Amino acid sequence: MSKHPRLRQAAWFVALYLGGIAAVACVAGLFRLLVPH
What is the mean pLDDT of each successive set of 10 residues along the chain, which is 37 residues long? Predict the structure, then answer.
């Protein structure tokens, strides 16, 4: 593994950030599909 805890922490932060955005987009897409306007 890498010996840079700061870099590893930054990578985890970016992964969680992108994961959160993907989850919100997925939920919004499902909600838009389930609820007809």
Answer: 84 97 97 87
Q: What is residue 5's predicted lDDT score, i.e. its pLDDT? A: 87
- Global confidence as pTM: 0.61
- Do 25 and 33 contact (CB within 8 A), yes or no? no
C-alpha 23/C-alpha 16 separation (Å) is: 10
Return the C-alpha torsion angle 32, 34, 35, 37, nearest 10. Answer: 70
Q: How far is Cα 33 from Cα 22, in angstroms, rounded to an integer?
A: 16
Three-class SS of residue 8?
Answer: helix
